[in-house]
């Protein structure tokens, strides 16, 4: 099993998390970066980037947190967003979290109804693009056209806890969500971080309205928990979105001249947000990198040309990304104890726009940050131990142990994920992590430490070869509390054309059908949906011999993964008709049917039942011959039919002179003057 000493991260996780151990070196303050070559993250970023800081043993860096904001103007997603997310620069392995804020996503009534049933196209696009790079959707929140998505590398998931979301409407006096803010807050390695995506009122003269709306958002959004109840109570806040701040006092001709001449610094001092940061108390402490990219609003859609319409709006930096570090409280410095410098610091590595995207009248803006955290949390809440490879079903044993103080729930589960999964519920199969289930969770001794054990059934395991990851999902925190490194599963695929009477074959088929129902594209991946599917007619399921004709939908894809429903139908199944009227006046009793069923001539397709109107034939080898349908709780006039082969044998019997009972209909005559050919015509 994959084990390591407690508290000591594996070399792979240390390398991915950017951990460095540098003895005998003092902390480096990252708030005053020196000059270095241009940012390697993107060719579109003109700003020089600070050198990567060398960190002491007492702290570590998440190499980068990427923040993206884009007002998409109700447009459809483009085909490619790799350059926007800085995935094509060779630096992808250094990125660990990505926060994406969208504004003006199409929220018309027809689109909202569709998005309520299915994931919206923008979220699908980002999940599809980021999942091959091992980014997992941690959380998402939407308020009409304002969407916020937070992604992280899968091996960081156990250290992302206390995830909560909130939203505040400010449009139409707080009744409409076209303007406002949405937020995702979470604990990252023990530090509280909040991502806030806002869409504030437009137009040059609405600066004071923007100030009031932002103050309202900060006041209204409250989170549960003992710490960081408000947005500004978090250790680190990223504020971004279409903030709609404009350029004052300068006419459009001078603004365009400054842009064309690349003298953007002449526009900075007239930028409303730059002015507000020095005059508005609510913005005290917010920082932003220099605006070394052209204004991102307003462009003619499909071009890089500024507004050429009759309105000729003045270009402006409406799309912004800011951050704020919570100041140290005065109480921490009392008692002769001075807090260490560099406990939490942020360096902006890149701040740029992406002119290559033309689907909207706004240009997207991206920023990359290096965040230095103190090493408060270096051990996951749940540690999972698993073999390097599962080549046999009996090897699918999972051992795990929980940290002291971990709030376990009876609804916790361990999911099996393919490498490249998209979100925590995008699993292949799962097993409940109930410690009170004596058959599935056993107390074990793991290297002298008490732990728990569960086992995946053979039916739940994927067939074939592939790399997989195990993750412990905590229902209390709605997040993954522990993951493994990728391991191999190499199980033989079930042979095609196996006998339907083979119980093991039917079990594997049952598992395959379950996996189809729980494919990664499933919109409702709750583990509760993985309970064994039962018959839709519980009263009929008691009679194993009763087989009804399936509907067209059931003939294409079985909805029930029961092994009995997956078996092929027997060939010799008769068609038996027991009309209500005929049963009433001819006096056919269940006792006579039972006597006919016990007739030794079991090889014949029909058995004769003596009746006043002549011989009548029913099947002797069918269990239906032993019971009267009226005693089965069915409708007396219910017509039971089977496959077409029975119809063929019915015709053969008719050619030999044996005529089964007539098919009765409400409009058919009941006299005896009907010829046999007419009575038995389809």
From TrEMBL:
Region (Disordered) location: 1-45, 490-575, 652-682
EC code: 3.1.3.36, 3.1.3.56
Class of this enzyme: hydrolase
An example molecular function term from Gene Ontology annotations: phosphatidylinositol-4,5-bisphosphate 5-phosphatase activity
Biased composition (Pro residues): 35-45
Main location: cytoplasm
Catalysed reactions listed for this entry: 1D-myo-inositol 1,3,4,5-tetrakisphosphate + H2O = 1D-myo-inositol 1,3,4-trisphosphate + phosphate; a 1,2-diacyl-sn-glycero-3-phospho-(1D-myo-inositol-4,5-bisphosphate) + H2O = a 1,2-diacyl-sn-glycero-3-phospho-(1D-myo-inositol 4-phosphate) + phosphate; 1D-myo-inositol 1,4,5-trisphosphate + H2O = 1D-myo-inositol 1,4-bisphosphate + phosphate
Alphabetical list of Gene3D superfamilies matching this protein: 2.60.40.2840, Endonuclease/exonuclease/phosphatase (3.60.10.10)
Database matches in InterPro entries: Endo/exonu/phosph_ase_sf (IPR036691), IP5 (IPR046985), IPPc (IPR000300), SKICH (IPR041611)
Keywords: Cytoplasm, Hydrolase, Methylation, Phosphoprotein, Repeat, SH3-binding
Superkingdom: Eukaryota
SUPFAM superfamilies in the cross-refs: DNase I-like (SSF56219)
Stretches with biased composition (Low complexity): 497-507, 558-567, 665-675
Family: Belongs to the inositol 1,4,5-trisphosphate 5-phosphatase type II family.
Function: Inositol 5-phosphatase, which converts inositol 1,4,5-trisphosphate to inositol 1,4-bisphosphate. Also converts phosphatidylinositol 4,5-bisphosphate to phosphatidylinositol 4-phosphate and inositol 1,3,4,5-tetrakisphosphate to inositol 1,3,4-trisphosphate in vitro. May be involved in modulation of the function of inositol and phosphatidylinositol polyphosphate-binding proteins that are present at membranes ruffles.
Protein name: Phosphatidylinositol 4,5-bisphosphate 5-phosphatase A
Record organism: Climacteris rufus (rufous treecreeper)
Organism lineage string: Eukaryota, Metazoa, Chordata, Craniata, Vertebrata
């Amino acid at each position: 099993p994959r084990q390591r000493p407690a508290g000591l991260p594996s070399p792979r996780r240390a390398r991915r998390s950017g951990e460095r151990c540098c003895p005998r070196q003092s902390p480096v303050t990252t708030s005053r970066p020196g000059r270095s070559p241009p940012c390697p993250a993107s060719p579109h970023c003109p700003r020089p980037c600070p050198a990567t800081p060398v960190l002491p043993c007492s702290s570590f860096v998440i190499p980068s947190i990427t923040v993206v904001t884009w007002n998409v103007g109700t447009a459809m997603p483009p085909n490619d967003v790799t350059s926007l997310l800085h995935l094509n620069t060779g630096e992808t392995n250094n990125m660990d979290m990505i926060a994406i804020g969208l504004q003006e996503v199409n929220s018309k009534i027809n689109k909202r109804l569709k998005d309520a049933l299915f994931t919206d196209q923008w979220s699908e696009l980002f999940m599809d693009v980021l999942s091959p790079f091992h980014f997992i959707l941690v959380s998402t929140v939407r308020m009409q056209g304002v969407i916020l998505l937070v992604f992280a590398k899968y091996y960081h998931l156990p250290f992302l806890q206390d995830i909560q979301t909130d939203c505040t409407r400010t449009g139409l006096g707080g009744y409409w969500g076209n303007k406002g803010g949405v937020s995702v807050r979470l604990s990252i390695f023990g530090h509280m971080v909040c991502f806030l995506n806002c869409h504030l009122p437009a137009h040059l003269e609405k600066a004071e309205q923007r100030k009031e709306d932002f103050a309202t958002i900060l006041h209204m959004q409250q989170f549960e928990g003992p710490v960081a109840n408000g947005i500004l109570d978090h250790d680190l806040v990223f504020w971004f979105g279409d903030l709609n701040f404009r350029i004052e006092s300068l006419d459009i001709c001078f603004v365009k001249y400054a842009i064309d001449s690349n003298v953007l610094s002449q526009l900075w001092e007239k930028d409303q947000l730059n002015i507000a940061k020095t005059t508005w108390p609510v913005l005290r402490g917010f920082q932003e990198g220099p605006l070394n990219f052209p204004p991102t609003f307003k462009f003619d859609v499909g071009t890089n040309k500024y507004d050429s319409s009759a309105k000729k709006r003045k270009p402006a930096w409406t799309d912004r990304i800011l951050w704020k570090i919570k100041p140290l409280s005065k109480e921490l410095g009392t008692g002769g104890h001075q807090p260490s410098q560099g406990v939490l610091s942020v360096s902006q590595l890149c701040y740029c726009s992406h002119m290559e995207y033309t689907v909207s009248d706004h240009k997207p803006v991206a920023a990359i940050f290096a965040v230095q955290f103190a090493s408060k949390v270096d051990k996951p809440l749940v540690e999972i131990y698993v073999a390097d490879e599962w080549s046999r079903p009996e090897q699918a044993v999972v051992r795990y142990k929980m940290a002291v103080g971990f709030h376990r729930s009876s609804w916790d589960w361990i999911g099996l994920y393919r490498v490249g999964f998209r979100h925590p519920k995008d699993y292949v199969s799962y097993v409940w992590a109930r410690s009170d289930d004596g058959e599935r969770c056993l107390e074990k001794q793991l290297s002298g430490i008490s732990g728990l054990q569960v086992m995946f059934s053979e039916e739940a395991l994927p067939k074939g070869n592939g790399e997989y990851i195990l993750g412990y999902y905590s229902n209390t925190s709605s997040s993954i509390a522990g993951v493994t490194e990728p391991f191999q599963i190499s199980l033989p695929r079930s042979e095609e054309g196996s006998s339907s009477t083979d119980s093991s074959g039917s079990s594997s088929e049952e598992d395959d059908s379950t996996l189809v129902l729980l494919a990664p594209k499933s919109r409702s991946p709750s583990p509760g949906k993985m309970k064994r599917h039962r018959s839709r007619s519980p009263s009929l399921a008691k009679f194993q011999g009763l087989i009804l004709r399936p509907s067209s939908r059931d003939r294409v894809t079985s909805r029930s993964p029961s092994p009995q429903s997956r078996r092929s139908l027997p060939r010799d199944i008769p068609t038996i008709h027991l009309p209500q009227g005929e049963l009433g006046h001819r006096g056919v009793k269940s006792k006579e049917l039972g006597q006919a069923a016990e007739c030794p001539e079991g090889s014949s397709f029909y058995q004769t039942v003596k009746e006043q109107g002549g011989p009548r034939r029913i099947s002797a080898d069918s269990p239906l011959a032993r019971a009267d349908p009226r005693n089965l709780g069915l409708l007396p006039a219910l017509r039971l039919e089977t496959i077409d082969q029975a119809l063929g044998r019915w015709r053969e019997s008719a050619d030999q002179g044996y005529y089964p009972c007539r098919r009765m209909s409400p409009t058919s005559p009941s006299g005896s003057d009907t010829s046999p050919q007419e009575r038995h015509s389809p």
